[in-house]
Amino acid sequence: MSATKNPHRLEISHFAVAVTAFALASVLAVLQALVRADVAVPMKSESLYYISVTAHGVLMALVFTTFFIMGLGYCFARATVGLEWTRVAWVSFWIALAGTLMTTASILSGKSTVLYTFYPPLQAHWTFYVGATLLVVGSWGFCAVMIRSYLAWRRSHRAEPVPLAMHGMLATVAIWLLATAGLAVEMLTMLIPWSLGMIERVDPAIARTWFWWFGHPLTYFWLVPAYVVWYTVLPKHAGGRLFSDKLTRVVFMMFILFSTPVGFHHQFSDPGISSSWKLLHTLTTYAILFPSFVTAFTVTASLEVAGRMKGKKGLFDWIGALPWRDPLFSSVVLAMLTFGIGGFGGAINAAYAMNTMVHNTAWIQGHFHLTVGTAVALTFMGVTYWLLPRVLGRELRFAPLAAVQPYLWFFGMMLFSIPSHIVGLMGMPRRIYTAELFGSPVARTWQPFSTASAVGGVILFVSAMLYIVVVAATALWGRRVNGQTIEFSEPLEGAPEYGLWDRFAIWATLAVVLIVLAYAVPISHLYMMERFPSLPQMPF
Amino acid sequence: MKVHVYERAWLWAAAVMIAGFLGAVVFSAVVHAVQPPSHMETVDPEKIFEHPDFSNPRVESRDDGSTLVVGVAQMFSFSPDPITVKAGKPVTFRLTSTDVIHGFQVVGTNVNATVIPGYVTQQTVTFSKRGEYLVVCNEYCGLAHHIMQAKVVVE
């Protein structure tokens, strides 16, 4: 570091934690894939396998994503409306980091092998729950900083639409606050007092319900920041314009509205929730497909604009004019393509009756590696390549590796996920140490698919390591450059106007109303039944 | 709100597609009564072995030709095992767990249910094809989760 402090230290610290978690989780991932392909991995055991599955899930889905999103949020807030309360942001960072270390240590000690869904009555050590809760508390600090920065800007910009990148980040914040309310109930009234011995029993069906109140909007907490990049960074970067500013705002607000009242589509096969409420959550789940369909059009149209602005006139020749060697561009386009496949898979998961064919099978792991594991994670990797020179003031090292890495990730992920989808339909469960099942003839037909997935896993690991090498080399030895700024896409037609789609309070209030409608009755049914909660179980 | 004509067409197409998906879901749920297991009944997991019904896991043939299967899942087995039922006749599974959450997935069929301690999972199905079916636990339940299995024999 030079004598003057880097103004982006806050963001850089968040990205550093995210990338470290990603690196560790990648190593675990490739070992798991090899174990599933019956390769003699050193120290192979059931216990280490399930510890690894727990750690991989927590580090990737909760730590990598949350820290990356916080870093990106601060970065975009600074670039659009200015960042307030940086002291709160730093305190929140340390709280989240302390929580992360606590939970990670708890998992690696072998006392918390409960997987990242931590369904009771499986009971982890209390440090697992307290650490995870601290991570969330830290993220609430992030939310407070984002809201405060927005309000401070709003005071001097009364009737202006908030810049679109900040608009999307505020939608992310709203989704996260609605989502984590459910997790807070589960942690504070059930799991933490139970793990400390203050209460003896918890009800597993109620815990699952609060968990999935949180669990589905969690996926939009991951996805919406990726969408922010697709809408506000990609068109500019590709040399084009954003096709429609206004529809983008509609999309972000729709995510606030529909991301939470959908949790029962994760609990279709659960007892204790009546089928009519499950059907209702199916309707809201399908509503949330709509903003993604809009996104597919708007972002693709914006790229066509980029090609046309380079002088292309034909039906498809604009595609060739796009910057396919640029790692941000290729990452995001491959992420979008993958989300197309993963999105339709998601529509199948949510399909009330069809869900029975895929529930808890390998299909599910295939599905979320396409969605969070590629649509989100690959976008974040691409963003890293774009942001590093801008926040570190250093040129990307090993740029040719960065150009190849997204394609390698895409190819590896297809090889991992497509066989997972197929073998899931053939009945193979997810999260199993081995699918041998005492030589069952059906189980034998699954093995070639696990082997193909393992090859995909090795390719993904190579891709992940290329990413780590580029990031680390850039941070340590990148040539110093100045003047690279963070710039956002201009809309194709005219400047946006302030209106209904900037009124966060209205949409968040409507979202709360929908959540109450979707959850109040079935949750009170559960609490009012004669119930027999469970004692802790630790079969690990 | 001004929306480009192509985009307007796409929005309508997307809305029609989603309405089609939903129509199919609601049609199968209402007309064909294809619904996930959603039974509302509780049972004390610590007193399963004194329970009038679950203390005796069994396959029971009823007079109307249907079959009742009363089953218990616990680390790391299902009972009864094997479960022998008749093809072409309704089979009602009533399942619960004594310890943690388990899955009950009859591979190659539509039976895929979550078994939660304290609750009774109930699902009625008709197996059309004779043969031996593998049952797997598909919810992580501990270090031997992957060996937890049973057999359904359809005669």
Chart the SSEs and their pairings.
The complex is a heterodimer of chains A (540) and B (155).
Chain A: H1 9-36, H2 46-80, H3 86-108, H4 126-156, H5 164-195, H6 204-232, H7 234-237, H8 245-258, H9 275-287, H10 289-309, H11 317-320, H12 327-349, H13 355-358, H14 362-392, H15 399-425, H16 441-444, H17 447-477, H18 504-528
Chain B: H1 5-30, E1 58-61, E2 67-74, E3 77-79, E4 83-85, E5 90-97, E6 102-106, E7 112-115, E8 121-126, E9 131-136, E10 149-154
The helix/strand order of chain B is HEEEEEEEEEE
Q: What is the CATH C-level name of the largest domain in chain B?
A: Mainly Beta
Query: Helix segment count of chain B?
Result: 1
In oligomeric terms, what are we looking at?
heterodimer
Provide mean pLDDT of chain A, rounded: 96
What is the gyration radius of chain B calculated from CA atoms? 20 Å
Q: How many DSSP-defined strands of chain B?
A: 10
Unreliable stretches of chain B: none
Name of the CATH superfamily of chain A: Cytochrome c oxidase-like, subunit I domain
Give the second-level CATH assignment, the architecture of chain A: Up-down Bundle
Give the termini distance of chain B in whole angstroms: 63 Å
Please indicate the count of domains of chain A.
Answer: 1
Tell me the major beta sheet of chain B.
5 strands, mixed
- Unreliable spans of chain A are none
**Biggest interface: chains and residue counts?**
A-B, 74 and 66 residues
Major sheet of chain A:
none
Helical segment tally of chain A?
Answer: 18
Going by CATH, the architecture of the largest domain in chain B would be Sandwich
Structural class by sheet pairing and helices of chain B: alpha+beta
Hey, roughly how much beta strand do the residues of chain B contain? 25-35%
CATH topology of the largest domain in chain B: Immunoglobulin-like
